Structure formats: C-alpha cells, structure tokens
C-alpha cells in the first residue's frame, strides 16, 4: 500500500446524500479538495425513477441526474466502483477495496443501505429479483417481458413495504397475476387498522393479487416448464416465472463497527448530523439522527430525507451549524393508489388513533396520537391533507378536544391549524 492520499473532505457514498453534500461544500468552499467514493460505476441516478424505467415509461438515460463532467467542473474527485473497507479515526484515514489509503480533514458517511440478505434454499436463482440499484433494475426490466405472454403468467412477491409495492405495480402492468407472501397478518403490518386493511385487500384482490398471510418462503425450486416453485411454511406450493423480494434494507455499517464511532441501527448523529467522533458526519439512510420534532433518534430511509440531510451535512461540514428540523414524510403511487406516510407510524397494534374514511373515493386516513398530540399519519388518496397534518405534528398542539370530531370525514383538518 502506497503513501496515503490526502483530501480536505472525504465523502463515502455516491448516492444522493453524498453528492448533494459534496456540491453544497463546493458552493461554500471554492478552494478545498473534495473526494467522493462511490461503490457504483455510474454517476448519480434517481432511485425513485427505477420503477418507471422497469416499466418502460422512461429510457435509461433519463435516470441520470449528473454526468461525470459535472463533477469535474466542480472539482469533485470521484472514485467509482470502490468502497471503504476500513476506517481509522485516530489517523483520520479510510482504506478502500482497491487498496487505497486516504486521509481526511472532515469525513461524511453516506453509505446508504443494502437489501437484507435472503437465506432461502434456491434464493440465488437469476429470476429472484431485487430493486435497489440500477443493475437490479436492468435485470428486472429484461426478465419481466420474457414471461408476460404466457397463458398463465404468474409472479410471486414477498414483503409488505415500498419495494414490494413497486414490484406489484410492475407485475400488474405487465399482465401478471401475483401471489403475495407476507409474514405479517396484513400489508404495512400494524399501520393499517381493520377498516384500512379491508379496503386495501379488496382493492388489491381485484388487481389479481392473492394473499398468503403469516407465511414465509421455505424453498425455491426451478421446474422443467420454466416456472419457479415456492414451498412455504404453511405447506403451500406456489408457482411463478419470477420472484420479487422486498424485505427491506440494512445499513452499510461494517467498516465502522468497533472503531469508536457510536453505532446502533445506523451511525448515531445529533441534530447537526455530527457523529460521536470529531470531524465525522453521517447523512441519508445510514444516519440514525436526532429528530428534534419527536425528540428521539431514528432512521428515515427515503429520497427526500437523503437530499435534505446531504445538503445540511455539506453546509455544516463547510462551517455552518444548523440543525435538522423537519416532519419526515414519504409518498408512493402503486396500483392507482397514492400512499403518504407522515411523521411516526410505528406504534404497534395498540396504537391510539383516529380513522377517517371516504369509501366512494377510496380515501383513508389513520391519524396516530400520543395523548392528545398528533404524531403521524398514513394517508391513502388524501395527499391534500398532508401539509396540514405535518404542521399539526410539528406544532405539538393538544387536540384532545377535537379528536372525536375528526372521525367525521367532512371535518376539515386544516381548520385546526
């Protein structure tokens, strides 16, 4: 290993949090050296648009948000196809997978997450698909049309989160009927109440989706007719031409464990995105940040959050000292439904909540409370209420007096501001 290369700012991770941070630093600091280490070979692309690429609604070129020449113009050095495998905070040094030793003055960890390993016999089949990276999307885009014209084109999808929704949308778009396997009793776990689950499950069944609840894969076997056979823990045999896996992601934490930096589910940082080590920040899906709205640490893994955190981390690394203060939210459209998550929704089966229904519009809201204070909400086809709900969450108003009135779907939540 040669002499260490030295940079003023080193950013580990070439996703949107890392790139946003690098550009924010450069906008504030015209002279320092900046290095971006990216595991991927391509410049920044939109993970949000990957499902649209899979469904052939956009070309591959439309995915890219940056070109390498833009990094060059901003004097941001980029190492592609490379990852950090070791971290020495005492020496302010990282080591890459290509044997490079790099020292830094300030470091940002923005390594994001990787799909959770799926240790199922037969799970390494080429038609067991993920949808996290551009290479994943290339694979999905190639495979889905191959079997869509079969007389009984079926697919099997596992998981009850956002990636599974994208797989469901793509499967239905290509004409597949779907077996959906969930280890929980319903989609989104305990976030939906019984009314919401009844509405959603009936709607999804009409789209050709069959549910297999409180069930898991046991084994995958390729058959001579080209299908994959799935044996489940409920002694069912399911058949499909491909399998979409959406069981979540885990933070890329390994190089940082045992180095003295505080790690829990992610890299723990304060409201300024500073870690427990001096001159080390974290942003994006890897950051377990202190949320000043809820006064606790948690991870929010979505594109909007990554952009906001990347911008803030870059500004603070360049000399600012601003805190992150935002009510997190995420929206996704699938199967003709618009889902919006606002604030906290993971309160378990005994959550205190108010449910609002608009059956004719397939509208649904579940508002989560702690005492009389609104903490979060799940909205289906009710995006118009999101700004008011976010403002009420941020205000921490006691809404005890109006909780009963809120059950009336014609009560305008905006009047509570």
The total domain count is 3
pLDDT under 50 segments (min length 5)? none
In DSSP terms (H or I, runs of 4 or more residues), the helix count works out at 9
CATH superfamily of the largest domain: FAD/NAD(P)-binding domain
Tell me what the CATH architecture of the largest domain is: 3-Layer(bba) Sandwich
Tell me the quaternary state: single chain
CATH class identity of the largest domain: Alpha Beta
- Strand percent estimate: 25-35%
**Strands, count:** 25
Content-based structural category: alpha/beta
What would you call the shape? globular
Mean pLDDT: 95
Explain the overall architecture:
By secondary structure, the chain is of the alpha/beta class. The chain has three domains: 5-114 and 249-317, 3-Layer(bba) Sandwich (FAD/NAD(P)-binding domain), CATH 3.50.50; 128-245, 3-Layer(bba) Sandwich (FAD/NAD(P)-binding domain); 329-416, FAD/NAD-linked reductase, C-terminal dimerisation domain (Enolase-like, domain 1). The chain contains nine helices and 25 strands. The chain has helices at residues 16-28, 50-54, 68-73, 134-147, 162-173, 194-206, 303-317, 386-395, 403-406, and strands at residues 5-12, 34-37, 76-79, 84-88, 93-96, 101-109, 113-115, 128-129, 154-158, 177-181, 209-212, 217-222, 228-232, 237-240, 243-245, 249-251, 267-269, 280-282, 287-291, 296-298, 329-334, 337-343, 352-358, 363-370, 373-380. The strands form six sheets. Strands 1, 2, 3, 4, 5, 6 and 18 form a seven-stranded mixed β-sheet that branches. Helix 5 links the parallel strand 9 and strand 10 (177-181). Helix 1 runs parallel beside helix 7. The longest helix has 15 residues, at 303-317. The radius of gyration is 23 Å and the shape is globular. The model has no long low-confidence stretch (mean pLDDT 95).
């Amino acid at each position: 290993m040669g002499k260490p290369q030295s940079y003023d700012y080193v950013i580990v991770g070439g996703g949107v949090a890392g790139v946003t941070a690098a550009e924010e630093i450069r906008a504030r600091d015209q002279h320092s050296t900046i290095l971006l280490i990216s595991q991927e070979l391509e410049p920044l692309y939109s993970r949000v648009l990957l499902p649209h690429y899979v469904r052939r609604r956009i070309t591959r070129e439309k995915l890219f948000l940056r070109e390498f020449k833009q990094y060059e113009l901003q004097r941001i050095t980029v190492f592609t196809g490379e990852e950090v495998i070791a971290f020495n905070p005492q020496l302010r040094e990282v080591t890459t997978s290509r044997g490079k030793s790099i020292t830094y003055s300030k470091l940002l960890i923005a390594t994001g997450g990787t799909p959770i390993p799926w240790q199922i016999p037969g799970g390494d089949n080429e038609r067991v698909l993920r949808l996290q990276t551009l290479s994943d999307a290339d694979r999905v885009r190639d495979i889905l049309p191959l079997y869509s014209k079969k007389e009984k084109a079926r697919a099997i999808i596992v998981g009850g989160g956002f990636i599974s929704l994208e797989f469901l949308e793509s499967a239905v778009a290509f004409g597949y009927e779907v077996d959906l396997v969930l280890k929980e009793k319903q989609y989104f776990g305990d976030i939906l109440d019984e009314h919401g689950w009844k509405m959603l499950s009936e709607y999804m069944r009409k789209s050709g989706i069959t549910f297999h609840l409180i069930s898991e894969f046991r084994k995958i076997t390729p058959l001579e007719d080209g299908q994959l056979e799935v044996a489940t823990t409920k002694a069912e045999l399911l058949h499909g031409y491909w399998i979409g896996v959406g069981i979540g992601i885990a933070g890329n934490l390994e190089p940082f464990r045992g180095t003295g930096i505080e790690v829990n589910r992610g890299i723990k940082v304060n409201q300024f995105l500073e870690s427990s080590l001096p001159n080390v920040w974290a942003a994006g899906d890897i950051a377990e940040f202190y949320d000043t709205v809820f006064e606790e640490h948690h991870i929010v893994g979505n594109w909007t959050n990554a952009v906001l955190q990347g911008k803030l981390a870059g500004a603070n690394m360049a000399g600012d000292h601003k805190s992150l203060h935002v009510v997190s939210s995420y929206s996704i459209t699938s199967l003709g439904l618009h889902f919006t998550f606002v604030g906290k929704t993971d309160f378990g089966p005994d959550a205190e909540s108010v449910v609002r229904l608009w059956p004719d519009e397939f509208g649904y809201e579940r508002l989560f409370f702690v005492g009389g204070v609104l903490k979060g909400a799940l909205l289906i086809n009710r995006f118009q209420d999101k700004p008011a709900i976010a403002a009420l969450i941020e205000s921490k108003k006691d809404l005890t007096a109006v909780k009963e009135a809120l059950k009336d779907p014609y009560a305008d939540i905006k009047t509570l501001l």
